[in-house]
UniProtKB/TrEMBL annotation:
Belongs to the glycosyl hydrolase 3 family. InterPro entries: BXL (IPR044993), CBM6 (IPR005084), Cellulose-bd_IV (IPR006584), Fn3-like (IPR026891), Galactose-bd-like_sf (IPR008979), GH (IPR017853), Glyco_hydro_3_C (IPR002772), Glyco_hydro_3_C_sf (IPR036881). Keywords: Hydrolase, Signal. Residues 867-988 form the CBM6 domain. This is Exo-alpha-(1->6)-L-arabinopyranosidase. CDD domains: beta-trefoil_FSCN_BglX-like, CBM6_xylanase-like. Residues 1-24 form the signal peptide. One of its GO terms (biological process) is xylan catabolic process. It comes from Umezawaea tangerina. Gene3D superfamilies: 2.60.120.380, Galactose-binding domain-like, Glycoside hydrolase family 3 C-terminal domain, Glycoside hydrolase, family 3, N-terminal domain, Immunoglobulins. Pfam families: CBM_6, Fn3-like, Glyco_hydro_3, Glyco_hydro_3_C.
Amino acid sequence: MKRLLALLVTALLVALASAGPARAQAVFPFRDPGLPLAARVDDLLKRLTLDEKVSLLHQYQPAIPRLGVAAFKTGTEALHGVAWSTDRSDNGAVVTAKGTVFPQAVGLASTWDTELVKRVGAAVGDEARGFNAENPGVWGLQLWAPVVNLLRDPRWGRNEEGYSEDTHLTGEISTAYGSGLQGDDPRHLKTAPVLKHYLANNNEVHRDTTSSQLRPRVKHEYDEAAFKPAIAADAATGVMTSYNLVNGRPMTAHSDVDDVVRTWTDKDLFTVTDAGAPNGLIGSQNYYPDLPTADAAVLKAGVDSFTSDDTNSTKTIEAIKTALARGLIAESDVDTAVRHILAVRFRLGEFDPGGGPYAKITKDVVDSPANRALARETAGEAVVLLKNEGGTLPLDPRRSRKVAVVGPLSDTLYTDWYSGALPYAVTPVDGIRARLGSGGTVTSGEGVDRIALKEVGSGRYVTAGAGEGGDVLRIADGGAGATQQFDVFDWGQGVLTLRSAANDKYVTISGSSFVNSAVQPSGWFVQQQFKLEDVGGGQVVIRYAGYEKAYDWSGPEQYLTVAQDGHLVLGAVTAAEAARFTKDVVRDGIADAAAKARAADVAVVVVGSMPFINGREDHDRTDMNLADGQEALVRAVRAANPNTVVVLENSYPTTVTWEQANVPAMLWTTHAGAETGNALADVLFGDRNPSGHLTQTWYRSAADLPDILDYDIIKSDRTYQYFDGKPLYPFGYGLSYTSFRYDGLEVDSPVVDARGQVKVSVRVTNTGNRAGDEVVQLYTHQRTSRDEQPDRRLRAFDRVHLDPGRTKTVTLSVKAADLAVWDVTRNKWVVESSVQDIAVGASADDIRQRGSVRVRGETIPARDLAKDTRAVDFDDYAGVSLVDESKERGDAVGAAAGQWIRFTDANLGRGPRTFSAKVSKASAGSASIEVRLGDPVHGKVIGTAPVASTGDVYAYATTTAALSQARGRQDVYLVFTGDLRVASFSLK
């Protein structure tokens, strides 16, 4: 009877398991939420076949019906709201969300308000769940956000996506946003945020082939330090590797994912590649001979998921299977990656009854009234008051009854590449008009020329379509009516967009023809850009200036001609062959704006950027200026009405030096979403006291910056930490409608040891007549060190609200451990003994109170070059490059003739006798390494080691040289006389 009962139970279990996912859930231990996470993961993992496990390594993970495992897709974009995802059923077609759009990331950070940013993250996480509840096949719960790459160069095309040039501020804001995305449940994730883009991805020019040169101090103290806080705080569940190389090794297959990132947490991380990056390893980077070798390297480096070939996982699966067959990886490597993937999927509640606590969130949360209110609040807090001379702001609606709102961004809102679609739009004109109500008058104008273009040869005008979808542009008989008129928007460096007056749509390319059909300039290939080039005699030619040619047009032509049927087409390679036009100005935009300003009590000029044109993914900026036409507009309006306010709406620092000197009031905001107009009106009229602060240095000129590819912030004097010039606006800068006094700074102890912390308190008083928020910032400077230290470095901040006349004591804490520096002589973090200057104020350059504390740490000893020393652990250098020692791990120094590296304060004792080095030389012939003391040119040569060709950069040999007598503590230089690589060396 017992045997029969056992058989019946077994049969029942088999039947349940084969009955489909719903019934299978009750069978397997991995479905039991009462079991530990690791046990559940292990149970599911052991039930998967090898083929099933391999299938889970691609971005599009298939369902496994026999176990009731649903399909899973990585990567919903959610940088400042749910933005877009891809549709598996439509071969990876992009689907754009229509939900709450918050200010761009750099705007979120300008609030310096971690509690607010966490609330924003929570709202975005809710909306991601809402979209997922409606269509899980499109809206996955692994979110590719936030971006924590540091904004070390304001010309970076993706400046809008990051938070700050500072590691501490970036860490605080990313932790807050990630915490909101994840939710507060201790065991479950609302969503699974992934930090982008690890590591040192801060240029778009040749981003897949350039190598970011990171010497150890820069790598540890700066670039890694931006990623660690959110991971260490369990506010993110993984990283996305970046396209670039670091020190010669592609980040797509960089061992730091395991060797560094996973050491920051004891939680399983689910890491991913950037889109298409695995194929780049055998493509543009040419780093591996074939895809199986490349994908095996990616997996062994610690990357779990391949974002490759859109929805087609076949190539990845075949490459992984081939790698297994060749012995390049073992099944245990696959198991490790799958275990990471499943751990996060379990935490998302996927295998819990009912989908876990967050599965109850529905689409109703999307664009909710609460989220609209939060968007308005956030956009208002993100505004930075740059200048306010003579109390120009806030505007008094009783005195400013006539307001002219002009400028190319005055009556429109733009979205960016990582933005969702706006469910509604409140433009600056809308917001100001609503705020004034019936008690005031608002006049508006975009301040752009409206023109008609007459083809010289025929005398006929360029004509567009009047319908919603526009039509192919052609030359046609008739006068310059609405269908012949175009509004010309100047975005700088001669780049224009043409908006048809016939239907308010932008001219874009279609094949080799052009049509007025685009709602706004957009797309990966921004096809709505043109230049009107003056060819003399009052004539112009039209140059197509899209980032790349259209998808269906790859010819060399870039100038417009007129085809036989009258259509405008891309038909000329040079301006000399192009059709010529005269430009009839139907409306002078600047004159119109100036006239409106002259008749108003106050003029508000809204200028700035078009996010798809002025720097974005894949395109860096080459200057930082306001567009010439926009600056001319500001100058004209200021001349017409001294009571002029400039609103600068863009995503990055801009060299507005004339405006700062001549305009009485100026605000900066990012592209801040649907509530932009209301938020600006709130600030302009004083309903909200501006309290945003800049998160990066605004320079006076691009001449203040080195090459965008120079990543050594220490040697090149980058960011507020090392910049020794006078910025236009310093890091942390932001004005208020009230004023604040700082006094009574106290440091709780004059001395702190390396394991302690110091508490700094300061009294802050609102000395004005308005309530306001102040961002109290604490900086430190280490007086003495073995190495060059920053002039100042942000260590703590607090945003405090104060009513008029009220005082609050603000206490900020700094752990001594957070003052540690990277010791290149011993490859570890060290808290040095030194006095730390403490500076508290309203920006990096506006210090109100000072103090100091003595830190009892250690003194870094003199270098011991008798031990094996990595060449990259130098103290200074000239001309060398940092390269990959091997394709798996390690960095080396690549050098050419005349270049050198220095090792400061080496203790040579009674005198080393032998120099030896691990070197390689791919080119034929020989070179040498000179060992010099004190100076790379005139210093004493104590030995010269020959370097013969090894035939390959990864083929190393040992070279030696006898050393003449040298004693005591010396600066040792290795000076190179030819092309070679050196991995390590010693003086014994």
